[in-house]
Amino acid sequence: GQCSNHCPVGAIVEHDETQKVWDALSNPDLFPVVQIAPAVRVSIGEAFGYPIGTNLTGKLISSLKKLGFKGVFDTNMGADMTIMEEGNEFVHRFKKKDNMPLITSCCPAWVDFLEKFHSDMLDNFSTCKSPHEIIGVLSKTYYAKKHNVDPSKIFMVSIMPCTAKKYEIHRSEEMFASGHQDIDISLTTRELARMIKQSGIDFKNIEDQKADSILGAYSGAGTIFGATGGVMEAALRTAYHVITGKELSKVEFKQVRGLKGIKEANIDIDGTTVRVAIAHGLANVDHLLKEIEKTKAEGKPSPYDFVEVMACEGGCVGGGGQPYGVTDELRKKRAAGLYKDDESSKVRCSHLNPAVIQVYKEFVGEPLGPQAHKLFHNKYTKRKTYKK
Ligand code: SF4
């Protein structure tokens, strides 16, 4: 129901939608495809007795193939696409000092909160869609065309650490940008764990497999999206390139990592300072926003240029759709699994991901161009709240 869809910490159990996915998997008229979010790979193991934070991407992909999905993609690739759009959006606004700070918008619980309680800041929001929406729309356009599949038959399931994603998939008409709904069903990590168990798959002994081309290849920047500060760090890696035309010799921005409720940093990009802030957990978010609103109301310049916001403490690793019993220790270990994945990635910046380059070259054109705007961007509206 409405409550469970909006509860960012999952205190209310999600509305179980696994039956709809079983039905799609056994419907011969459909072409079921699936994608996994960054934070799911480092938490699913908890349902199967693995040490916390173990990265199980390969086993997850094999299990999804075994369940019968005809295309298994990675939301991390969508995160790289989000960064291409949002990194360019940031640089564009930063140069013009237009609607500063830019605020990230890939967390739907946060989008809902802003539309209801801070609607004076709607213009500060990045218009870019969240990573799973981008993979969804690409599966029903680019992928469908390349693989000669009727897009109306594609049934896209996303596996998310999140209950709010169940609401995001039909939150506005932009979620139907290709004429089809970008995402048909959004399941939580817990729902997928149940499906794997019900199917009798021997998760521990299944061999690792890779996600399918071309919506499965990701950079280290894409994978850290699941931890607080990860979107900011990924965006900075690409923004550096957009601003300077050069590549970073050291890609890590450790100042934006960790579990402090509000993190602030001044990032030096070749002599230009970018002032960033990161808030996670809605109480911290509210605090930070009020500070920004206050300077706006007083007509003063914004104290920040770029702000990352996640409704859940720790970011999506601590999401409401994750295995129960989240503590800071657990959040740290899950995040460490993602940072390790980044460190061991050959490509660590979104704009250097060959799959991203190919999708722009063959299909989208330029970041922020007309096709990108049509498929990858959102609008926001002030929404009502009811008080008695
Ligand atoms: Fe969902 Fe992540 Fe936002 Fe939590 S932080 S509500 S898991 S998108």
UniProtKB/TrEMBL annotation:
Source organism superkingdom: Bacteria
Keyword terms of this UniProt record: 4Fe-4S, Iron, Iron-sulfur, Metal-binding, Repeat
Please indicate which part of the intact protein appears here, giving the first and last residue numbers and the full length. Answer: 195 to 582 of 582
Q: Under what name is this protein listed? A: FeFe hydrogenase HydA (NuoG)
Tell me the leader sequence span. Answer: none
GO MF term list: 4 iron, 4 sulfur cluster binding; ferredoxin hydrogenase activity; iron ion binding
